[in-house]
Amino acid sequence: MKLVIQRVTSASVTIDGKVTGSIGKGYMVLIGIGREDSEETVRKYADKMLKLRIFEDENGKTNLSLSQVNGELLLVSQFTLYADTSSNRPGFTPAAPPDMAEKLYNCFVEYCRDKVAKVETGEFGADMKVSLINDGPFTICL
Questions:
Q1: pLDDT at res. 130
Q2: DSSP state letter for 97
Q3: Which of 16, 28, 136, 141 is the most buried (most CB within 10 A)?
């Protein structure tokens, strides 16, 4: 599993001209699922993401977690995180097959919904336009 976590002041996903997910302060997360991933991997990475302390406290130190700032999540599937770029034309065989990836992506979303008040998503496999205001900028790759 690969996550690209961006701390944002706002983010949204648009599909066919319609906004399908939108958040304020929180994380916009690109989620890549690999062939070796499982539901256990999903829980491990989601827990790590949710425990990250990357929001500023009253002293300007990055010391607060998503829950401590009542943050929101925008979760977007992104198989291209598993691109093999050893040649000029990327290959995606390290990524999980679509049926497996969709199942684990949905598992990730539901796991987060049990822990975070507002979780928005894109649409698995859709052509999505993602907009965000990266706060910092602050980006973490897991």
A1: 97
A2: P
A3: 28
> Catalytic one among 55, 79, 108, 121?
79
Q: Which residue has the tokens 């990524």?
A: 95
9 is catalytic: no
Question: How far apart are the C-alpha atoms of 110 and 39, rounded to whole Å?
Answer: 11
Q: Which amino acid is at 138?
A: F
Query: What's the pLDDT at 53?
Result: 97
* Closest by Cα among 119, 133, 134, 34 to 72: 119
124 is catalytic: no
Residue 122 to residue 41: CA distance in whole angstroms: 21
Q: Active site includes 78?
A: yes
Dist CA 83 CA 10 (whole Å)? 27
Contact 12, 118 (CB under 8 A): no
In the chain the domains, ranked by start, together with CATH numbers, are 2-141 (3.50.80.10)
Q: Are 77 and 31 in contact (CB under 8 A)?
A: yes
Which pLDDT belongs to residue 115?
A: 97
